[in-house]
Amino acid sequence: MLLNVLQVGEAVLRRRARPLAIDEIRSPAIQQLIEDLRDTMREAPGVGLAAPQVGVSLQLAVIEDRAELMKDLAAERLDELGRQPVGFHAIVNPTITLGEETVEFFEGCLSLAKFGAVVARARRVTVECWNERAERVRIEADGWYARILQHEIDHLNGCLYIDRMQSRSFMTMDHFNRYWKNLPMAEIRKALLDEGG
Ligand code: ZN
Questions:
Q1: How remote is the CA of residue 21 from the centroid of ligand 1, in Å?
Q2: pLDDT in tens, 19-52
Q3: Would strands 60-65 and 48-50 be described as parallel, antiparallel, or unpaired?
Q4: Ligand 1 centroid distance, CA of 95 (Å)
Q5: Which candidate in 35, 80, 152, 187 is catalytic?
Q6: What H or E segment, with its residue span, contains residue 172?
Q7: Exposed / middle / buried, residue 141 (Cβ in 10 Å: 0-12, 13-18, 19+)
């Protein structure tokens, strides 16, 4: 079932979500929610969706990055982003450890439909959580996958990318797609972020 994705301005997007009890993960209600989040994410399309974005204040998000979503991006951009397919999985009650090195790239959010901005994120992260089968997992991620994890875990803590963005780079996705999508970050930085550049 497709769920309605809430837009910025809804209080639930600003609340810290409640952790799940581990035996709740296998319950029919949560298994159904995971399935609905997956279908809604794929339909959007997006690479992640957190439960608070559909009005459910729980520490649960789903992630999937499909090759199909990368077909408009040049090989050099995918390289720069460190972007490669990530199989479908859920994260439950995650804790995240950020690597020291940061990288800047554009990101968007289904709860701020049709906008995007440059956000600095850690290049590498370690996430400890439970998955959709209630198994304890430890994820070591870098590049785009690390960015998705940081973005989704922010949602579980009531934080949106606009809290972290380089505000000078805020733009419509139409303009991102028209002007910036396939440019190296160094050029974007020069044109938008370096003041008076
Ligand atoms: Zn988001």
A1: 24
A2: 999 999 999 999 999 999 999 999 999 999 999 9
A3: antiparallel
A4: 18
A5: 152
A6: strand 165-172
A7: buried
pLDDT for 184 beyond 70: yes
Cα–Cα dist 169/158, whole Å: 22
CA of 84 to the centre of ligand 1 (A): 19
Domains in the chain with CATH codes: 11-193 (3.90.45.10)
Query: Among all chains, which residue has been given the structure tokens 């959007």?
Result: 44
Burial of 9 (0-12, 13-18, 19+ CB in 10 A): exposed
| Of residues 179, 167, 54, 76, the one with CA closest to residue 118 | 167
Given this model, what pLDDT does residue 196 score?
A: 66
pLDDT digits (tens, 9 = 90+) for 98-141: 999 999 999 999 999 999 999 999 999 999 999 999 999 999 99
